[in-house]
Amino acid sequence: MRVSTAGSFTARLDAVPLNRFHRRLLVVSGLGWMFDAMDVILVAFLVAPVAREFGLEAGRIPWIASAGFVGMFLGAAISGRLADRYGRRTVFQATLLVFSLGSLLTTLAPTFETFVAARIVAGLGLGGELPVASTLVSELSPSAKRGRMIVLLESFWAYGTILAGLIAIFVIPTFGWRGATFVGCLPALYVAYLRRALPESPRYLASKGLLNEADAVVRRVEREGGAALITVARAVAPPPAPKVGLADLWSRAFAKRTLTLWLLWAGITFTYYGVFTYLPSLLAARGLTEVKSNEFFFLSTIAQVPGYFSAAWLVDRWGRKPTLIVYLLGTAASALLFGNAGTGTLAFVWAALLSFFNLGAWGVVYTLTPELYPTAIRGGGSGSAAAIGRGFGILAPFAVPLLAPSLGQSGVFAFFTALVVLTALVVLGLAEETKGRTLEELGEQRVAAAS
User: Fold this and answer.
1) Burial status of residue 345 (CB atoms within 10 A of its CB: 0-12, 13-18, 19 or more)
2) Cβ(63)–Cβ(91) under 8 Å?
3) Which residues contact 323 (CB under 8 A, 6 or more apart)?
4) Taking the CB of the first residue and of the last residue of the chain, which one, N or C, has fewer CB atoms within 10 A?
5) Interior angle at CA 209, CA 203 and CA 212, nearest 5
6) Nearest to 328 by CA among 298, 300, 364, 301
7) If we measure between CA atoms, which residue out of 77, 43, 434 comes closest to residue 272?
8) Average pLDDT in the 67-82 region?
C-alpha cells in the first residue's frame, strides 16, 4: 500500500534543492568524520613506536589497533539506539566529545593498560559517530541527491586518512606517537562546538509528535534554498508511522535487508582493517624503511579522494547496487595485484587503485545502510549493522599476523580478494536498489504493506 505524503514535512524536505544549509550540514558533519578517520588510520603508524615504548611482546601488539575497534563495536551498538530514543543531534554531539576525551587520554597514557582503556573510550565515540552522522544527513537530504550527500560525507574519511599520513611523516619523527594522538583532540572539540548549530532531524521530530518543531526545521531548510522568508502554508504532518522496534530488524519486512547489511558490513570491514591497518608493516616487510613505508602509504591513499567523488557521481545515476558491485570487484582485483607486487611503480599503482575502489565502496555502504529502515529504528538498524562490522574489525588485526606466516603476503591478499568477491555476490543476490525512492517509501510504507 502506498501512502501519499504530498505537502507533508517529509515531501517538502525531499523537494528542496541542495543549498547552503545542506553544504553546511555536510561540512560540519564531515569534519568530525575526518578526525575520526585520522585517528583510525593513525593507529597503523603507531604500532611500532607504541610497541617499542611499552616493550610489548608479540602477542600483545595487535591490541594497539583492536582496542579501538572494541570501543567502536560498543559505540555503534549503543549510539544508534540512543539516537532513536533521544534524537540524532544530541547523540551526534556527544560522540565527538567522547572521541576527543579518549584521544586526550591516549596521549597521557602512562602504561599499556591505560593506553588500551583510552583507545576503547576513543572508539566508543568513533563507533557511535559514523552511523548517527549518516542517519542525520540522510534524513535531512532531498531524496534525489541523498546518495551523493552521503558519499560526499564519507569522502571526509579520505581527508582524515591524508591528514594521518602527514602526521606520520612530519609529526611522529619529531614529537613521537603522543604528539600524533594529541593533534586531533582540540580541533575535534571545536567541531563538536560547531555542531550546536545543526538542527534535529524533522523526520525524528515528527515521529515523536513534535510537529511544530519539525515544521520549523523544514521551513529553515526551505528559506536557505531561496523560499519566501514567511511561509503561510498550513503545516501538514506525514501519515502516522506504524510502530516498530529493534526486534523488527528480523521481521518479515526487514529480515532480508538486515541479513544483507550484516554480511556486507562484515566483509568490507574485515577487509578494510585487515589491509589498511597493516599496510605500513607489510611494506616494511618488503624492505622499505619505516619512513619510506609511511610515505608510500600516504601517497597511495590520495587516490581515495577521486574514488569517493566518482562514487558520489555514480550512486544517484547508476544506483547503489551496481555502483557498489563495481567498486567491490575493483577492490578485489587491486588487492590481488598488490599482493603479488613488490615496492616499485606497479605496487604503488595497485595500492592507489585499492584505495580508490575500496573507499568508494565504503561511501555506497554508508548511503545504503540508513535507507533500509524506517525512522523509528533507522539509528538502531544502522548501528547494529555497523557493530557487526566493527566486531569483524576487532578480529582483523589478529588475523593478518596469523595468516601471513603460512600464506605469505600474496596469499593474505588472495584471501582478502576472495572475501571481497563473496561480498559482491551477496550484494548482487540480496541487495535492494534504493535510488530515487523516499525514506518513507523504503521504510514506513514497507511496514504498512507487510502488516
Assistant:
1) exposed
2) no
3) 311, 314, 315, 360, 364
4) N
5) 80
6) 364
7) 43
8) 90
Residue 9 and residue 202 in contact, taking contact as beta carbons nearer than 8 Å = yes
Report the alpha-carbon distance of residue 149 to residue 152 in Å, rounded: 5
Question: Is residue 257 within 8 Å of 382, Cβ to Cβ?
Answer: no
Binned at pLDDT 50, 70 and 90, residue 407 comes out as: confident
Contact 431, 321 (CB under 8 A): yes
Q: Quick one: angle between helices 255-276 and 320-339, nearest 10?
A: 30
What nine digits make up the cell of 19?
A: 543549498
- Cβ-contact 156, 37 below 8 angstroms: yes
Look up cell 557487526; give the residue.
Answer: 388
**Dist. CA 65–CA 6, nearest whole Å:** 49
Nearest CA to 142 out of 237, 11, 239 is that of: 11
Helix/strand/coil for 253:
coil
Residue 111: is it exposed, middle or buried by C-beta count within 10 angstroms (0-12/13-18/19+)?
A: exposed
CA torsion through residues 68, 73, 78, 84, sign: positive
- pLDDT tens, 312-354? 999 999 999 999 999 999 999 998 998 887 666 787 788 889 9
Backbone angles phi, psi at 236, to 5 degrees: -120, 120
Q: What grid cell was written down for 438?
A: 523516499
Q: Is 245 helix (H, G, I), strand (E, B) or coil?
A: coil
CA quadruple 193, 197, 202, 206: dihedral positive or negative? positive
**Residue 166 in this model has a pLDDT that exceeds 90:** no
Please give the share of the chain, as a percent, with pLDDT higher than 70.
89
Q: What is the dihedral of CA 52, 301, 359, 397, to 10 degrees?
A: -20
DSSP conformational letter for 201: P
Between CA 23 and CA 18 the distance in angstroms is 8
Q: Which residue has the cell 572539540?
A: 189
Retrieve residue 282's grid coordinates. 607489510
**CATH class of segment(s) 9-450:** mainly alpha
